[in-house]
Amino acid sequence: MSEVINNREYRQKILKELISELHSGKSVDEVKERFAKLIEGVSPTEISEMEHSLMMDGMPVEEVQRLCDVHAAVFKDSIEEIHRPQKPEDVPGHPVHTFKLENKKIESLIDKIRADIEKFRSQDTHENIQNLRNDFEKLWEIDKHYLRKENLLFPFMEKYQITAPPKVMWGVDDEIRDAIKVVRAILSDYSNVNKEQLADKAEETAVRVKEMIFKEENILFPMVMETLSEDEWFIIEEGSSEIGYSLLENAVKWKPVKISVEKKVESAGEEPSNNGYIKFDAGIMSPNEINAILNTLPLDMTFVDKDGIVKYFTQGKERIFARTKAIIGREVKNCHPPASVHIVEKIVEDLSSGKKDNEDFWIKMGDKFVYIRYFAVRNAKGEYLGTIEVTQDIKPIQDITGEKRLASST
Fold it and tell me: Where is the Hemerythrin-like domain (predicted)?
């Protein structure tokens, strides 16, 4: 394992050197040749780590941003394909599917813009000028594409400490916005304008838009698909319509993998008990009392049934980890970032197989000391019914000293 880590660190070091050499003036071809000899494949995550490392070493964001165009060209033929048994981004309505659909529309528009630029270069007739005006009015719709990326996607990347790529990409987005505004402004008052300068500016803008599409498709999207959970994609999709879409009237509503837990238990012959009481091994309680008691406990509980479906979680006042009702009915593996799914699956496998009855973890979160426990839930016959996760901030308990025998006066 250590040799893998060391190799990864070594490759990171080489990648930084290559970028630094580009920064110092070496040609792309020179760097690509060395790159081909030393590197077999580079994942989007490693590119992210490299950019972050450069910034941590003191390279200004603007410098990393300037290099962004170059390193995209260097890695264009080298980015490894992320193989997945299933590709959620191929499902219509998934945020990445929508981003890619927009990119296709934008690319088609860019092709038209380039054709119209050539017509304009040959003759700046009123019709040719008006065509360019219409083209760049449509191109401004790219603002919605960038706004969704910046306001819905980037916050989740920052949550996972992926900070450099969003900063760099946001800066380039703004440059593209400014370039489109400049062309639109010139076209709105064409008199006394140098035709070739305008055509060059329009062409340069079109090229930058195409370059950004390449970076999104080959660096950004593979990176976030590798990182974000289905639950997080669901939140992004939910917020997308508020901002709107570029060159699309509407996006298809995404239907993530999810089942109805009520129908699932009904199909097993179980009936709801909302109007009666439930008899336990030692006593009875109404569903209303059970719900209130569970929400009063000073801890979080999440129950995953024997098929790995999230079936329930408590809603106490002090939550440790964020939960939304959207996770009910989802496979637990889809509610975690891909990088940690294997840990979750291993825990469930050990508990369901009987290899373990519980698994415990404890982590520091700010001023909290969080104790996370997973228990196998079995019936009287020892049959596995599911896994319950119990999470609690035990810092206040750790701080307890001495004794307390009287109730507080306040």
Answer: 94-224
**Fold matches, 91-243 and 287-399:** no
Domain extents for the chain? 1-78, 91-243, 287-399
Burial of 150 (0-12, 13-18, 19+ CB in 10 A): middle
Residue given tokens 């990182």 in the structure block: 227
Give the Cα separation of 363 and 352 in Å (integer). Answer: 24
- The residue type of 300 is D
Q: Do 329 and 310 touch, CB atoms closer than 8 A?
A: yes
Residue pLDDT, tens place only, 6-23: 455 666 677 677 777 777
| Residue 189 confidence (pLDDT) | 87
* Architecture of the domain spanning 91-243: Up-down Bundle (1.20)
Record the tokens describing residue 338, joined without a space: 């891909």
Q: How far apart are CA 246 and CA 101, in angstroms?
A: 9
- Please name the residues in contact with 28: beta carbons below 8 A apart, sequence gap of 6 or more: 22, 70, 73, 74
Which of the 8 DSSP states describes residue 149? I
Count CB-CB contacts under 10 A for residue 110: 18
> What CATH topology corresponds to 287-399?
Beta-Lactamase (3.30.450)
371, 391 contact by CB (below 8 A): yes
Its pTM stands at: 0.56
What gap in Å lies between CA 392 and CA 373, rounded to an integer? 9
Under 8 Å between Cβ of 48 and 162: yes
Region 252-272 average pLDDT:
76
Q: What are the phi and psi torsion angles at 329 (to 5°)? A: 95, 0
Say which residue the tokens 């999709």 belong to. Answer: 237
Encoded amino acid at 29, one letter: D
Angle between helices 2-24 and 61-75 (to 10 degrees): 110
Alpha carbons 106 and 114: distance in angstroms, whole number? 12
What per-residue confidence (pLDDT) applies to 5? 37
pLDDT tens-digit map of 288-321: 999 999 999 999 999 999 998 889 999 988 778 7
